[in-house]
Amino acid sequence: GQQVMQIPQYQHVQEGEDFTTYCNSSTTLSNIQWYKQRPGGHPVFLIQLVKSGEVKKQKRLTFQFGEAKKNSSLHITATQTTDVGTYFCAGNQAGTALIFGKGTTLSVSS
Amino acid sequence: NAGVTQTPKFQVLKTGQSMTLQCAQDMNHNSMYWYRQDPGMGLRLIYYSASEGTTDKGEVPNGYNVSRLNKREFSLRLESAAPSQTSVYFCASRAHGLAGGSDNEQFFGPGTRLTVL
Question: DSSP readout, B24-49?
Answer without folding.
Answer: EESS--SEEEEEEEETTTEEEEEEEE
